[in-house]
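Hi R.,

Here's the chain you asked about this morning:
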Amino acid sequence: MFHRSAKLAYRLGVGLNFGIDSDDSELTADNSFTRVRDTETTSNQFGLSINATRLKYFTPKKRMSFYWGAGPEVGFRFSDRDVNTNSTFEDSSMGISESSTQSIALNIGGILVFGTEFFLHKMISLTAEYRSRSAYTWTSEERDQIDTSSSGDVVNQNTSTTKHQVFIGSSSVLLGLSAYF
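And the predicted structure, written out as tokens:
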């Protein structure tokens, strides 16, 4: 954070987001179609966002300061998801379905923040901040699916989609620790 004066500061923010998820489920049904279905799902995600915020302090140089700010934000997200399903049907035939989905999303927009900063020491503070976002997002998704029956029949489907979205809404409450040098 760069303070221009007691009431004005500029902040550059970098956000990282990543996740790994795995799930294995089994469904047993006694109907005319599927008797047992075993599904294994794995997904991975990575995201990066960068924002520049101009902050205006209502009560500068106090132990507790309230502020608001606004600025631009850009982001990138990559995710992939694999789903493998083994099915056993009522007539004892089997089927295997494998799908893989990969997506890339790019967004550009703005953020609006309202927060408070509590100084533990002249050089160290705790912050709590409410953040609202608006963004335009472009997403490209590729999906490959292969279905194989016990008789050896193979169906291969490839789909590609592009989405354009506009988002306006609240995002989150952030808690932080700041050190000033």
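The beta strands are 2-3, 8-28, 34-57, 64-89, 94-121, 124-149, 154-179.

Let me know if you need anything else.
M.
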